[in-house]
Specification:
The protein has 10 helices and 11 strands. By secondary structure, the chain is an alpha/beta fold.
């Protein structure tokens, strides 16, 4: 079992989360690309709302979730929901068992990186099977903000490591890429690890390195990104339904001129090849990746 952050969910939000699937970018991509034959797995299903959504659209689907408390609470209310406790880095099924797989905002929670869960997802997917992954995007806006706040921290006596040392205070844990074994940008920058944010090229290279072929690579959840990085003045978050105000719509229209400028998530539709492919230099072949809606 690879170490991962255990994400908590409010199971009372199940109905709101399910209702929002109709407008969710990744849920709609799943309807478009997942195969209709065989069984689909949601790896890291949380309260199971996406499992229910796919069931309602006549997919054969099941889910696994690491948080046993969440699974137990959900099954008390929805005993027919085919979800179970499970670790996405060690899935107890034979090789090539599933025809499709979805993983929405899960694999970024492994401090050692995406390699272990992606390797396991490749193992359980049949040749020709489709996997849809999404992770938080280290987009252009976030890179600019990170550079600004990192520079500002140097002049903040509460955060500056030299000032804290002189004052005899404990040095704060700074989650910098390359330190502490961290491979990508860490959120939060200071404190306990929660998740990685990846640039488009970083995410695509991880998918290719795991052995998958990329069918589609797109920025998603743009209004969520505006809400996350700019606040409620631009986009209102009501029960996880993100409604843009006029300024938010204008900002979205402007920023969309630049790919991966303000998307909250980056979503990749990947396929397990039907024959062996030599991936020794896959990471050096970005031309094979389709980027854009």
């Amino acid at each position: 079992m690879a170490e991962s952050v255990v994400f908590d969910w409010d199971t009372a939000e199940f109905d709101a989360l399910l209702a929002n699937c109709g407008k969710d970018d990744t849920a709609q991509i799943a309807l478009q690309f997942l195969p209709r034959d065989g069984v689909i797995l949601e790896a890291g299903c949380g309260p199971g709302h996406v499992v229910r959504y796919l069931m309602d659209h006549e997919f054969r689907v099941e889910g696994i979730e690491l948080n046993k408390t969440v699974v137990d609470k959900v099954l008390e209310i929805h005993p027919d929901l085919p979800i179970r406790v499970g670790d996405v880095s060690e899935i107890s099924v034979p090789d090539e068992y599933y025809s499709g797989l979805v993983s929405f905002g899960v694999i970024e929670h492994f401090p050692l990186g995406l390699e272990v869960p992606l390797k396991e997802h490749f193992r359980i997917l049949r040749p020709g099977g489709v996997a849809i992954f999404s992770v938080p995007s280290f987009n252009l806006v976030r890179r600019i903000k990170n550079a600004y706040f990192s520079a500002r921290d140097l002049f903040n006596p509460r955060l500056n490591p030299l000032v804290r040392r002189v004052a005899g205070k404990k040095r704060l844990q700074r989650n910098a890429r390359g330190s502490g074994g961290f491979r990508y940008h860490v959120n939060p920058r200071i404190g306990d690890f929660f998740e990685y944010w990846l640039t488009a090229s970083e995410f695509e290279k991880e998918i290719l390195r795991a052995g998958f072929e990329i069918e589609k690579s797109v920025p998603t959840h743009h209004f969520v990104g505006i809400w996350y990085d700019f606040g409620n003045w631009w986009v209102v978050n009501e029960n996880r339904a993100f409604a843009p105000k006029l300024p938010g719509r204008l900002l979205d229209k402007f920023l969309k001129r630049m790919p991966f400028a303000h998307n909250h998530m980056h979503t990749i539709v990947a396929v397990r090849p039907t024959a062996h492919v030599d991936r020794t230099d896959s990471a050096s072949k970005p031309a094979s990746v389709q980027v854009g809606p």
